[in-house]
Amino acid sequence: MFDSIQKSFGSAIKKLRGKSRMSEAEVDEVLADIRVGLLEADVHFRVVRDFLARVKERCLREEVLKSLSPEQQVLKVLSEELTSMLGGNAKELDFSVKPPAVILVCGLQGSGKTTSLVKLALHLKNKNKRVLVVSTDVRRPAALEQLKQLSERNGIDGVYLENQAQLPPLKIAESALKKAQETNTEVLLVDTAGRVQLDDDLMNELQSLTKALNPTERLLVIDSMMGQSAVDVAEGFQSKVDLTGAILTKLDGDARGGAALSLVSVTGKPIKFIGTGERATDFEIFYPERISSRLLDMGDVLSLLERAEEALKDEDIAKEEMAEGMLKGSFTLEDFRNQLRMVSKMGSMGSLMKMLPGMGSIQEQFNEQEADKEFKKINAILGSMTQEERKQPQVINGSRRSRISKGSGVAVQEINSFLKRFDEARRMMKKMGKWAKYFGGAAGGGGAPAGLDPFMSKRNKGFGRKL
Length: 467
Fold this sequence. Notes:
With 467 residues, this protein is an alpha/beta fold. It has 3 domains: 3-85, Four Helix Bundle (Hemerythrin (Met), subunit A), CATH 1.20.120; 101-298, 3-Layer(aba) Sandwich (Rossmann fold); 310-456, Orthogonal Bundle (434 Repressor (Amino-terminal Domain)), CATH 1.10.260. The protein has 21 helices and 8 strands. The protein has helices spanning 3-14, 24-40, 45-59, 62-65, 70-85, 113-126, 143-153, 169-182, 200-213, 229-241, 258-267, 288-295, 301-311, 316-328, 333-345, 349-353, 368-383, 387-391, 398-408, 412-439, 453-456, and strands at 101-107, 131-135, 157-158, 187-191, 217-223, 245-249, 271-275, 283-285. Strand 5 (217-223), helix 10 and strand 6 (245-249) form a beta-alpha-beta unit. Helix 17 (368-383) crosses helix 19. It is flat and about 70 Å long. Residues 435-467 have low confidence and may be disordered.
């Protein structure tokens, strides 16, 4: 996400590195690079023009020009202006009404509307909200079935009427609202019909639903890959429905991100959520200051910590037992497998690494697909072992290795290398446990989970060398 913008900012700022003073000509040179990067990322030209004008005006102030660290000063200006362009602060959903609060979700066909509605429903359910979903899309044959399958898969209640595909959208919506009131539902999420393009039928239907339901939130789902055309779509919906915000989807597949930078500035409507992957949990609150931090390659550690806290909230006991085993040298392959499982709950390795400061500068050296591929291989090896073998790796002899090789589809040589690295890691953990007794505190302060460190070093020659 935002890869090309991040690169343009990085290469521009690099020109100021090591300088003790900055001239107006150098400011212009930096902004010229940024302008090219933003336009190539499909940011709306008006947004680029206004943004650069504000940045230049601030950078030409005396305290910046004569600063002892122009790089830091310019980074500060860029960070603040990017945050402002993206909306300033995160905008929460409005629940200040008598339940049920109605959220109407609209957008063009193929934008990820139905998927986003289910992701939002799961997000609210995890916040202990009583949620109900309904589809008023009677034009797309698979719309109702898609919502039903996704909702049931994630334990979300829905409204499904007899012969629903033959009913008017307004009648479906009114029936759903009645059921929400009868069941003490706190939030009713309404999926609407999409179109390939804006048309009068779509807008008239949305206006009728809005009038009947009086939704507190009217969220537009926008495909981030649309670029500048996202602004035209948003303005079209806004003219008829009075949007309260947007959900930006498919950011995991968009290296440009122009839609995000354009949408708020041009429409004046906040982005409230972003979709970052295919899983129902790949859904985040949109924090402008965190996105600007990612764009400037300063990472997004807060989001990473929040993701870890949410993903591992039920793993506290397991983590404590694992840590104790590490210090005693009794860390097993079963423990290692549990660690991998914990990490996988947080998302792909690539998405996690991109939240760390400075990753943009080495992004070309880091292959997200290869990293995830290596993790799958390791999981395949561990999954082909018996529980006895995972708990007592010393029993894995030649014949067992051959069986594990066939079960996992991994060469015996690679399994030998993996087991060797694991044995070295376990001996190192035991030493660290002894040191901890003398120096106090736990061993293995930061970085990757202790059991993963030896497998993620580029210097290693066996499994994980690509990580």
